[in-house]
Amino acid sequence: MNENGAVETRHDGPEEGSAGERSPGVTADPAAPTPPQPAPRPRRRGPGPLTFLVLPGLLTLSAVAGLLALTGGLPSDWTPGTDGQQVTVPGVNETYVPWLRKAAAGCTVVTPSVLAAQIDQLSGWRDDTGRLSGEQGIAGFTDAEWRTWGKDDDGNGNSSPRDPADAIMALGRQDCALAGEVTDLRTDGTVTGDLVDLTLAAFAVGGREVAAAGRVPAGARTYLAEVKQLLPRYEAFDRETPTGGGPADVILAPPVTTLVITSPYGSRQHPLTGVTKLHTGVDFGAPQGAQVAAARDGRVVFAAMTRAYGNRVVIDHGTVDGKRLETTYSHLSVLGVTAGQSVRTGTPIGRVGSTGLSTGPHLHFEVVYDGYYADPRPWLSLED
After folding, report:
1. % pLDDT > 90, the chain
2. pTM recorded for the entire structure
């Protein structure tokens, strides 16, 4: 893609982080080392689409009541359609969709449909696991796996594989870590193949098996085929309607001097991975080393190197109209602030670069409002 400046370059502006990456609305930890490889575990196939078509009564009010009893009630932010588009699939609770999108938002390879198809393959969306295999919840986590990937993502005070929100987010973290691993393997020539296929294979049999085979190993082919057969059922989960404004008044100052957008917010095919998904921010073309400034008063909550976003800064601006507002600044060549530091509008926070998953100098800028990515353009005064 074209950058402005003395020369033309291409860049990705990766809306989607990578292995274990922290992103507002996504709870992965970018600084965390790659966890030890878990031993491969057998995957169980739950009821597929035909089951739900033949037995539509599986998700009755009594089943929902049972789910609420197990999880202690749905978290308060499980509101259908809060991510801008209400999507329904027979047999899938519509309130899962925002969590699927959150879980996939921080990864270059994994999409909401991939996560949904995995859950369908693992459990058929039913929490009836754990009796014999030790796997629990709709994503089938063992206790050992949960200690690695599980968190209290919905903030209800309980981190549990039987809490659907926690389980979906944990599966996203695990998949994103595996995606980062196989991306590195493919980059250095150790393996060949489609990144989604390699990620699913690593989930089934482990990254070491994938590396040893140099491609999708034979032991993962059945699992891969079953998940891919289910993917079309959940494609609508990937088509997130860009939502985006906040308050009508422009409240954010320009993060760079020249606001030339080289890749807008919205669905796009990632130039490096080839995966089509939501580009969660805008890419501003800017020359290497150009000053990047805070768009609003706030507090730096993250400033560190990440795999896909490179040097990344996240600023919490407090609440606007009762909802939390954060901005992010990625691919910086230099970090000019540290976590915990207070900044004012216009405070220098770093310099434009091309660190992380990027093909040229630019600033990838995001607005996260009420926990969801929003189109930054309505928040900024942009010159045509």
Report:
1. 43
2. 0.52
